[in-house]
Amino acid sequence: MRWCRTNHRLLVFTSIQSKEASEGIAYQWNYMVENHYGDCGMKAGSCSGRRESPPLDDRSRSLVLVNYFRSIPMKKLSCEDNSGNLMNMIYTCYGAAASRWANFVAVDYYKRSEGGGSFQAVDLLNAKLLCGCDDIHACVSGSTSGASTL
Fold it and tell me: Which N-terminal stretch is annotated as signal sequence (predicted)?
């Protein structure tokens, strides 16, 4: 019950369709769309859908997952991957997903970046989803930061 009192949530999805009926675990493709993972999902300016996923612009699925990690994890390159390149992919996938911001981001070595990295990406997405701003701090009541426009 501690999770309820502290307002924490755990989302569990499965890629095995039969588990939704038999075990009550949400079948991910009924609820989300997802871009390619691995090297195929890291092409600048392109955000193509994962083969198993419904099309990225399918608005009947309310959740969007953006993958941004290499097929073979490379710690040395993760600083670059998790910085400007990640932020660019978030904007690219926004367009591919029918102007919807990602609810989830999957990266390797999330603590490594040349700047704000994955934490900046999550702050941006939380701000976009919560109040339509570029900075999560702008969503705070009484903030002097203004809303952004695209």
Answer: none
Q: Can you tell me the distance from the alpha carbon of 49 to that of 18, in angstroms, rounded to the nearest whole number?
A: 23
**Whether 117 contacts 89, CB under 8 Å:** no
Q: Note the pLDDT tens digit of each residue in 19-68.
A: 999 999 999 999 999 999 999 999 999 999 999 999 999 999 999 999 99
For residue 83 the two structure tokens come to 């910085």
Contacts of 102 (CB under 8 A, 6+ apart): 64, 65, 66, 90, 93, 94, 125
Closest residue by Cα to residue 84 from 107, 117, 38: 117
- Element (DSSP H or E) covering residue 5: helix 2-5
